[in-house]
Amino acid sequence: VYQVFESVAKKYDVMNDSMTLGIHRVWKDILMHKMNPSPGTLLLDVAGGTGDIAFRFINYVRSVRERQLQRKLRHHQNLSWQEISESYQEDKSKPLGDSQVVVCDINKEMLKVGKQKAQHLGYSEGLSWVLGNAEELPFDDDMFDVYTIAFGIRNVTRIDLALQEAYRVLKPGGRFLCLEFSHVSNPLLSRLYDLYSFQVIPVLGEVIAGDWKSYQYLVESIRRFPPQEELKAMIEDAGFFKVDYQNLNSGIVAIHSGFKL
Amino acid sequence: LYPGHIPTSPLQKALLAAGSACMALCDPYRHDMVAVLGETTGCLALPNLRDKMKNHPEGYRILQERPRIRLSTLDVGRLRGLPDGTLGREYVRFLEDNKVSPDTRMPPKFVDDEELAYVIQRYREVHDLMHTLLGMPTNMLGEVVVKWFEAVQTGLPMCVLGAAFGPIRLSARKLQVLATELVPWAIRSGRNASCILNFYYEQRWEQPVESLREEIGIFPPP
Q1: What superfamily in CATH does domain A1-260 come from?
Q2: Is residue B202 part of a domain?
Q3: Residues within 8 A of B (CB atoms), A 163-202 only
Q4: ipTM, 2 dp
């Protein structure tokens, strides 16, 4: 799996856009809305490689923070000019309100692409990049408010270990969120989806990335991954409560959520 | 079927052909796309070439023995030591001048017949020798000329497309030289020459280029 992502890293984002016709962006946006993070949240994004989730998190938190500040201003209309401008200084220094996201990935190439993207797009604050394995995270217990893994858990050899690690590093009250390809129950859609996956995706891989085999692997790994209910049971086994899932696009993708209580 | 073979459905071949054609035009450095285009569109031309080889004594031997042109099998030092004007000497000169190597040719992936896969592999490896025999460098202009020659010789759709669309990226001055001198010469030579895959080049290193040109039927370059 490591070698697959080594060769895939540079063209990862281009391929994602072509394969899903840009819809993956919508899926990730929905994930962020479901998370609804408030400023001050500490997020761990595992298998976060090229930073898609991390950047969305920062944008979300930034806009929430701006709204917070605007509301504060409205309530302070009775203050003097000096007091208002002083409060600007204070708030300007915390545009993210102490929110932080740690992007963790097992693959150096993916992290490299992510860091370059961050620089290119102008993200500097609140981001950290760590090399690590989802089955054995280099973090202490009870550290994070939210743990996300978007399109990463299907590449983990021992999903149960990754789930246990997720439980360990989350604070009590913390939330586990998993965005992943899942099973389509509608038979007609399922056949169309299979046709598209097996006929078109490897061709896209060959033409865009010069790599048929990695994308053939991708399509096969999606089929092998446990369906919604089974994944839900595995998450519960790791100790999470209130585990639930939401199907997107009739099950092509699903968001699983759980809480550490 | 053979190492590196990826079986593909007709739909996949069609998509690959279309995709690789677009990609090869958009990004001329994607030589792998040119290769893929050749493989997915060659279903008529390749058997034709294979039959031409079968019916020719030297071509038949090549099909039997399946020689490969690779740096590991070529004795570059010996070839460099050959007198000027011989195939071996000029070939090595060509490789060094243009800084290319025979090892960068893509192995076939999408051809569904093992013998035809060898035919296309042989075509790719002989391409550099074509450059040598035609006296064309590896810049865009030289490549287009060789493509015209190969299009006439092999009938591979990829060569025809490459010959027709390659010139798009050339300047007006070069286009003029191309149209007035080089392409007509390439076409005449291609028509006149016997099948280029029927010559056992590895056994002809000592042969002078001029004599080989005459034997094959390639007119002297302008």
Answers
A1: Vaccinia Virus protein VP39 (3.40.50.150)
A2: yes
A3: 199-200, 202
A4: 0.80
